[in-house]
Specification:
The protein has about 350 residues and is an alpha/beta fold. The longest helix has 20 residues. The N and C termini lie close together (about 10 Å). The strands form 4 sheets. A 7-stranded parallel beta sheet has the order 3-4-7-8-9-10-13. It has a two-stranded antiparallel ribbon with strand order 1-2. A two-stranded antiparallel sheet has the order 5-6. Helix 9 crosses helix 10. It has one domain: Alpha-Beta Barrel (TIM Barrel), CATH 3.20.20. The protein is about 35% helix and about 15% strand.
Length: about 350
């Protein structure tokens, strides 16, 4: 599989590349990424065939969009697809305000949820200014599950955001799609359960599913992915390394879902690594390629901080993996036996 291979999303002729670039690192997630490093990462991605770039106002409280914009502006806008998100409204941070402290050197801002029509339109306007572009190809409604948990199996209980999304945000985006202002609309979150509800409730083109269909998690295979196939909703896989452990392996300090990986999970990853070693398959290659076994999956969008990481992801996607490798993972009980494999 090549990074630049294309897949269709939606019904307006939009295509994304099999490998995209996620924008959290441009928001200084965990560590700073300076402007030149950001330009280099975008250049390396483009040269490798990547033509799909994802970002969001939440990432670094606007920094991701601001830093990605200059790099993307150096290329023909018609050749690339850009997605961003609505739902988090940025505001000046006051003493005592809650804020996400994962972003290094972030501006003194915080955010709150607002899925109203006006907030959606204002958010898109702000994103266009930060990116310095005239349009977005995909707009995703961000975290209407309220980000309350990213534990596997958690079932969303608060329906307030769901109701506002369907009453206001969704009709606003559907209107923009109808007008041709955007080519595709959808949602992005760390849960699959509410995405299944949205798949039934509206006419969406794409879901960004972060960390919930990976080499370590296949629960969404039972309900969400068949729904997406039935309703022609394409899946964008975020967090293919489950926030770290599938990139680093089961090392001391490995992270899973943005926290220290528990011992049972470390043991499972060690089992996967053993199968990888027997078949001469890098763990990262298995992690990046696994989601593509399902026909609903259009693209994976790992982040990258360096040119070397971009080149690594490209190589992992190209690495030849035999059917015997996937069969052994199933035989060992390391992935769901029902998982379709590439």
């Amino acid at each position: 599989m090549q990074a630049g291979d294309r897949e269709k999303v939606g019904l307006q002729g939009l295509e994304v590349t099999r490998l995209g670039l996620g924008g959290t690192t441009f928001g200084n997630l965990y560590s700073a990424l300076d402007e030149q490093e950001g330009l280099d990462v975008i250049d390396a991605s483009y040269m490798a065939g990547v033509r799909y770039f994802d970002t969001a106002p939440l990432y670094g409280y606007g920094m991701s969009e601001t830093k990605m914009g200059p790099g993307l502006a150096r290329y023909n806008r018609d050749e690339i697809a850009i997605s961003s998100k609505v739902g988090y409204v940025l505001k000046e941070r006051q003493e005592g305000d809650d804020y996400v402290d994962l972003f290094v050197d972030a501006p003194k801002l915080t955010s709150y949820f607002d899925y109203s029509r006006d907030a959606v339109l204002r958010s898109i306007e702000g994103t266009l200014k930060r990116l310095k572009t005239d349009r977005l190809d995909i707009v995703l409604i961000h975290d209407p599950d309220d980000g309350k948990s990213i534990e596997p199996g958690w079932v969303p209980g608060d329906r307030a955001n769901f109701d506002q999304v369907m009453a206001e945000a969704y009709p606003a985006l559907a209107e923009l799609r109808e007008q041709g202002v955007v080519k595709a609309i959808g949602l992005g979150m760390n849960q699959w359960q509410m995405l299944a509800d949205f798949a039934r409730a509206g006419n969406f083109d794409a879901f960004l599913l972060a960390g919930r269909y990976t080499l370590l998690e296949q629960e969404s295979l039972r309900e969400l992915l068949p729904l997406c196939t039935e309703r022609e909703v394409r899946i964008i896989i975020g967090g293919p390394y489950n926030s770290g452990i599938l990139a680093t392996g089961a090392i001391e300090g490995a992270t899973y879902n943005y926290a220290a990986a528990p011992e049972p999970l470390l043991e499972r990853v060690r089992g996967i690594e053993a199968v990888c070693a027997r078949h001469d398959v890098p763990l990262q290659a298995a992690a990046l390629q696994f989601p593509f076994g399902h026909s609903a999956v259009a693209t994976v969008i790992p982040g990258a901080r360096t040119v070397a990481e971009v080149e690594g992801n490209v190589g992992f996607l190209q690495h030849a993996i035999s059917a015997d490798f996937w069969a052994e993972l199933k035989q060992e009980g390391l992935i769901d036996a029902a998982s379709p494999t590439p």
